[in-house]
């Protein structure tokens, strides 16, 4: 961040601050937002965290999660909050389109905007930018941000638990985007008192019965192995959503299970939503799914984890996905895993 001194001066006096993150917020979105909130409150700022839509229930245990304002539920309150702050922090996204109507309010407002993000090709909408596509997560970058401000001494257990959760989920339990630097940060968080076993249990071992039945259904009835491309396709229909009473967060992690198979390089999870069909892509080692998401599905993300969407429905999207696989066949078959 080139103008860190200017931002530090702004933060030296208590401000009205709003933190926001992307639609369908995940562990990193919520963890980084709440971690930053707990830090800024120590500086005397008034802070609200807002997101466009609900987040998975397995994140509700995080300190401050119950205070997060959801635009889809508390629309007028979020609109009012976004119109008046001195500073707005945009975390874990690099385009105002990722926050829907909230982005229009921010673009039309006069608040100073800070973007902290690790996704590729950020758009130039912020006054202050901290961007690092080599970072494992935005939660890792919040740690870096606090360090840049010279305030690591203000790190506490609440901040540590939130940032650890974001790092844990965005790295797939330390399987992706790791580095020596990241593990040094995690060590610092553990020294603060973060209980990594407790957090692993809260996030990964708190499923309801329906989640396991849904997983079984997907793996038995909704999985196609495309051996000639070292690829697995899984999907869910609108009827599946009704039969299993699927709500937000219930499908979290499904896309990762087929990656446990040997000789599988990529997994695609395609599922119907009320107005769009979403696709989540995961891969191993050197094969990048980011290009596929961006080129074919209006999306993007990271090398090994990206996503996108289409407007053509479930079956046509599945056919479209299969039709592009020959373009990447040699890379899929020769991936170093």
What is the CATH architecture descriptor of the largest domain?
A: Alpha-Beta Complex
Provide the number of structural domains: 2
**Could you report the average pLDDT, rounded to the nearest whole number?**
94
CATH fold-level label of the largest domain: inorganic pyrophosphatase (n-terminal core)
- Report the radius of gyration as a whole number of Å: 20 Å
Please estimate the helix content: 25-40%
Give the structural class.
Answer: alpha/beta
**Briefly, what CATH class of the largest domain?**
Alpha Beta
| Lateral arrangement of strands in the main beta sheet | 3-2-1-4-5-6
Q: What's the CATH H-level homologous superfamily of the largest domain?
A: inorganic pyrophosphatase (n-terminal core)
Features:
337 residues, Diaminopimelate Epimerase, Chain A, domain 1, inorganic pyrophosphatase (n-terminal core), 38% helix, six-stranded parallel β-sheet, 12 strands, alpha/beta
Describe the structure.
With 337 residues, the chain is an alpha/beta fold. It has two domains: 4-204, inorganic pyrophosphatase (n-terminal core) (Alpha-Beta Complex), CATH 3.90.1640; 210-333, Roll (Diaminopimelate Epimerase, Chain A, domain 1). It is 38% helix and 18% strand. The protein has helices at residues 4-10, 27-42, 75-83, 101-108, 138-148, 157-170, 180-191, 196-204, 209-221, 238-243, 290-296, 314-324, 329-333, and strands spanning 16-20, 46-51, 69-70, 87-91, 112-117, 128-131, 223-226, 231-236, 266-272, 277-283, 300-301, 305-310. A six-stranded parallel beta sheet has the order 3-2-1-4-5-6, with helices on both faces. Strands 7-8-9-10-12-11 form a six-stranded mixed beta sheet. A hairpin with a 4-residue loop joins strand 7 and strand 8 (231-236). Helix 2 runs parallel beside helix 5 (138-148) and helix 6 (157-170) crosses helix 8. The longest helix has 16 residues, at 27-42. It starts with a helix and ends with a helix.
